[in-house]
Write a structure and sequence with these properties.
The protein is an all-beta fold and 94 residues long. The chain has strands spanning 9-15, 21-24, 27-30, 39-42, 56-63, 84-89. The protein has one domain: Sandwich (Immunoglobulin-like). The chain starts with 8 loop residues before the first strand and ends in a 5-residue tail after the last strand.
Length: 94
Amino acid sequence: IINSGGHRIGFAFKTTNPRRLNMDPPNGVLDPKEAINIAISCDAFDPAAEATNNDRVTVEWTNTPEGAAKQFRREWFQGDGMVRRKNLPIEYNM
């Protein structure tokens, strides 16, 4: 993730299948122009026994309040502030 903007942002990942898909780190804070690598991993599963067509990862981000510490807060995503969202479909190599 790259924060290409001029404000500090908080980000959080969600998934439609938390038993199978893991993100590291799952959330955090980025200063302007700062970048971070996110590892997305998948636990072993039987694709013949489980549906995979709806699996996706969603990243949400929002500007942090002025003067906020560089520590992620879930409450930044609640209330009146603008939350941006990007859905990323998962394609498995089977």
